[in-house]
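Weekly structure sync, notes
Attendees: PL (lead), two postdocs, one rotation student
Agenda item 3: pending single-chain targets
PL asked that the sequence for the first pending target be pasted directly into the notes so everyone works from the same version. It is reproduced below exactly as submitted, 449 residues in total.
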Amino acid sequence: MTSNDGPRSKGPLNNSRSKYIIIIGGCLTGLILAQALRNVNRKHPEAPHFTFDLYERDSHAFARGGGWSLTIHWALTDLRNVLPMEIIERFEDCLVNPEAAERKDPGNFQFLNLKTGEKQHIWPIPLGAASRVARHKLMALLMEGLNIQVSIQKLMRCLFADLGSKWFKGLERITYPTDSTVSAHFSDGTNVTGDLLIGCDRANSAVRRSLCPTISQTNRLPVRMIGLSMERPLSDIQKCLAIDPHFFQGGDPDSNVYFWHSFIDLPRSADERTTATCQLMMSWPHCKGFMGRDEPLEVPESVEEKLALIRELSTGWAALFKELVFGTPEDADLREIVLADWPPQKGAWDKHNGTVSLVGDAAHAMTMFRGEAANHGVIDVSTLIKRLGSTLGESSRVTLKEVIDDYEEEMITRTRPAVFKSRQACIDANNFSSVNSESPLISRRAVKD
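Predicted structure, written out during the meeting:
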């Protein structure tokens, strides 16, 4: 099976029947874009096709880990509209807590006092308005296409190959052979030429560096964070489930430390599995005087030091939250999460006559404190696909330049303020007194505020 259930081109076609799209980056948004293109081709078999290949710099799908969990909320309808039916029909397989979904319990959005356990702020999540999914399950679903039973790493490679993906393809530079073509040159000495190149290559995007080298660097925020995932016995998580079936967060009013707990994978009651996969994140303000220290506190290098630090930071918390931190296994994979963002600017890069653009984190890197990054990535794909769809049909005179101009106008208008809101949410999360009804940390989410 090819990338689009039709003929695949290795370069731009000279006829009007096809456009070849180069997707750089196999992250979540890149996979959604690839599946969306397949879906367009299936829905319009008589129209010109979009052939494509997906190029990824890593060695396999989960070289950076499987990721944690995420909430699809205001982008849920768009996600369902762009994906093929066989993917949508299995979307519920990716749910973090399938039994909560079946009993129609969406949970609450709440912010807790870590010292007392009291709920500082809470509002119910409307039924059907959001889905909490495990990132690794969603990525695996989006990569499906070949029914091959092999080891997990080989399976991911085979499934990813079905989307026309190329592994170990680190982008080195982009050139423009003609006014209507674009070439990607890779670190292994190969290159490919197409009609359109889309950068989906995460927050530190190589495509973005090529387009706007002087301003492509992300802005690191004055907050430091440690994150981890771990298996916990089901008997140990009942108190967490009593707070919320999906996630909760809170702050320490004395130290301004922020804490996040969520489930990544909860087994069903009838399953034989006896553990749940959980995610913890803790962050603190990067400033002098924090916790009595003369200098700003950086994330330690070793796992042992990281573990000792998060235990120190949680001293004095209410029993449940302290137990969650102190119950972290000695061999847990604690990682620093660099908090940085990049607000897009209109006119910041040359679109080269509509042959290149950015999608997802590559276009608008933002912190996770409003849970909107993936949602904006979905809307990016939805908007781009709609614009590309307008080029279909022999009577269409819409050019790729017009497609990219329209797409980027909408995308930047929508996401630039979203990046700043997520930045402020990050700052507020680590300043307990700033968390109020006006704070973007806990204000209700909408596609455009």
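Discussion points:
- The longest strand covers residues 223-233.
- Confidence is low (pLDDT under 50) at residues 1-15, 59-66, 146-161.
Action: rotation student to compare against the earlier draft before next sync.
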